[in-house]
Amino acid sequence: MEKPGMDRRVSRFGSRLLTLWSILRLLSAGHLQAQTIAIEMTPEQPKLETPWIITFMVDHPAPAEVVIRYPPLPASLLLESIRTGARLVESSRWTAVEFWFIPQRPGPVHLRPFEVITPGKRFVTEGISGYIEGTLTEYRPYFSWGAVPPSLAVGEAQELTLRLVNWDPRKPLPGPELLRMDAPEQAILEEAPLSESHREQGIVLRLTIIPLDGQTFALPPATIRHEGLTLEVPEIAIPLKKKKKSIEEKSPEEKIWEEKPPIPPLPETAVQVFPLFRADYEKTLETIRRLWNEGCIPEALAEIRRNERDSLWGHYLVPLRREAERRLGFDAVQDERRRPLFIAIFLGTIVLLLVSLLYTARKKSVTSRFSWGYTSIAVVLAATAGVFGFKAVKPLEGPVTLRTADAYRVPDENSGITARFKGGQSVIIRSASESWAYIETFDGRFGWVLRDKIIVY
């Protein structure tokens, strides 16, 4: 007769084996990712001519990295907008992607699977089905421009579509001849043909626009009369941003500014370095020469200033840095402020080690000597790690070096330029955001620059 304990062990082993098999099956089918995605519908029962919002909650903290590809839509649904933002779910930051639909016809509706893409992951949802409630007894049609971009570059082509929403399907849609529009000044306006698929979606006009100049592309409102109804076409106003000029289109002043200037030779140094620091000084000088000769002027000057500030022998680099900045044409600069804290750590370390050695030398026990020696080393390492850890977590502020950059009046590349800086210019950061930093120079120039133009040393 078998023992009861043996039965329990076999049962537990079989249970674990079944669980492992289930997990492997889910992994192979890609279903484990479903735990990181939730789908919400508001309202749960869609109604005719009432916004139906389908929200995809994705367990990913960065909304800009979440992409959701939607399938071809049925004629009974009009996609009004897609809105993406962040939400807190049980103290965790998730991404919420909202699809705003306007049901056009009553009856059953089915959406094919959506594809959700995040860095390193891809997931296909199940289809979404529902029933649109309502009757077609009353129609309140109106025109709506679809997918209007928030801004447009001068010379950039963009397609615009005009939809007729809530139109009685028993009546014919207005033809493009009723919707002809005059091109605004300094813009090209071309009409594109309509397919049967476009007409099924309620699209009555397709336009290709190309703004040539100005600050705003605008189409005025229009009044259309069709099938006994008077309908208003809403106006459009799209801000324009200047397109980057080609080399041939740029003025001589712009060409001079953007051309890469010849690299002046790095000044020679003839300083007598204290023998204790000579090896580190020569190694750093070799790194600076390599960066300079490769054309990495901002990086070379940042290396000089970092060692000038933090190294015990940093004052030997001051004449080299001053002459290099003079050759580059930088006048509004200042010397780096020395960091006595690091010097104090170095001197304190030496003093602590000497005291430890003298104290342990007087101990008769070898164990006591080792104990005090290890304690001293641990104290020195902890102090050094604390200082460097404080340096690592402090916010972006203080002096930095810039790459070639434009400074703007506000943190927006479409705003006015307040100053232009050549690569290697030393500036002071007054405040910073996720993508921008507000900087000032010692001669009073200021503005917002992109964070990727900053070299922190």
Briefly, what CATH class of the domain at 32-132? Mainly Beta
Structural class: alpha+beta
Please state how the strands of the largest beta sheet are arranged side by side: 24-23-22-19-25
Summed up, the helix count is 8
Question: How helical, in percent, are the residues?
Answer: 25-40%
CATH architecture of the domain at 32-132: Sandwich
- Gyration radius from CA atoms, angstroms: 34 Å
Oligomer: single chain
| Distance separating the two termini | 77 Å
Shape: elongated
Number of strands: 25
CATH homologous superfamily designation of the domain at 32-132: Immunoglobulins
Q: What is the mean predicted local confidence, pLDDT?
A: 77
CATH topology of the domain at 32-132: Immunoglobulin-like
Task: Provide structural commentary.
- There is one protein chain.
- The chain has 457 residues and is of the alpha+beta class.
- Among the domains are: 101 residues, Immunoglobulins (Immunoglobulin-like); 100 residues, Immunoglobulins (Immunoglobulin-like, Sandwich); 54 residues; 63 residues, SH3 Domains (SH3 type barrels).
- It has eight helices and 25 strands.
- The strands form eight sheets. The protein has a five-stranded antiparallel β-sheet with strand order 24-23-22-19-25. It has a four-stranded antiparallel β-sheet with strand order 1-2-5-4, with no helix packed on it. The chain has a four-stranded antiparallel β-sheet with strand order 10-12-14-13.
- Helix 4 runs antiparallel to helix 5 and helix 7 runs antiparallel to helix 8.
- The longest helix has 28 residues.
- The N and C termini lie far apart (77 Å).
- About 4% of the residues have low confidence.
